[in-house]
Design goal:
Helix content is 62%, strand content 14%. By secondary structure, the chain is an alpha+beta fold. Among the domains are: 78-156; 159-218, Roll (Nucleotide Exchange Factor Grpe, Chain A, domain 2). The strands form two sheets. It has a three-stranded antiparallel beta sheet. Strands 2-6-3 form a three-stranded mixed beta sheet, with no helix packed on it.
Length: 218
């Protein structure tokens, strides 16, 4: 390359640099040096770290709240279950007392019907039949009332025990008397003095019974 060509190229390069200096503004606000960039990145990183801690704290608070809520919900469910059990227990107790009251009424009616079935007849009763007819009508009314009461008890699931001739069951029977009887085994139920009843399979009232006992040989 001769001297003239080298001088021309250097002149063109110098002119190009001058043109670049003219096109570039002297104070470009968008121009950021490395120190400023690193400083802002550090500040952004620190802000992200702070927000992450705040988010983690909020998440922990939410988790604690959820656990507390679950605890309250569990306690509430237990309280509701206990309240339902108590209500059910009260209902069963009220029903049981009501049914026992009906059985007491039945005992009275049954005693009246039994007495009316075997009335003692005196000379005057045979001579004047009017009072006897009245007593018979009264007994018939008691029998009708007893049947209706038995229907009511049946609708509640109340069933009489069948104990006559069966061995003594201490869970459902109470011995109120003993009679000598060699025809059956010891502890066989001979009579009921008060009937026993079941309520939906459970013992509602135990039976009071008289049982047999073999006589000892003399």
């Amino acid at each position: 390359m001769d001297e003239a060509t080298r001088a021309r190229l250097l002149a063109e390069f110098a002119a190009c640099l001058d043109d670049m200096d003219k096109d570039m503004p002297e104070d470009d606000p968008r121009t950021v040096d490395l120190y400023t960039l690193l400083t802002e990145m550090a500040a952004l990183k620190n802000e992200i770290r702070i927000e992450s801690r705040q988010f983690k704290g909020a998440l922990d608070d939410f988790r604690t709240f959820a656990e507390t809520l679950n605890g309250h919900t569990s306690r509430l469910e237990r309280d509701l279950d206990r309240a339902r059990e108590e209500a059910s227990g009260n209902e069963r107790r009220i029903e049981r007392n009501f049914l026992l009251g009906l059985l007491t009424l039945r005992d009275s009616l049954q005693a009246g019907v039994s007495a009316a079935g075997n009335p003692p007849r005196s000379f005057w009763d045979r001579l004047i039949p009017g009072p006897q007819r009245f007593a018979n009508s009264l007994a018939e009314g008691q029998r009708l009332t007893l049947r209706r009461l038995d229907d009511t008890l049946d609708s509640y699931g109340v069933r009489p025990m069948s104990v006559l001739g069966s061995p003594l069951d201490p869970n459902s029977m109470r011995v109120v008397g003993v009679e000598a009887n060699d025809a059956v085994a010891n502890g066989t139920v001979l009579r009921e003095t008060r009937s026993g009843f079941f309520h939906r399979g459970d013992i509602l009232r135990i039976a009071e019974v008289i049982v047999s006992k073999k006589e000892l040989p003399t």
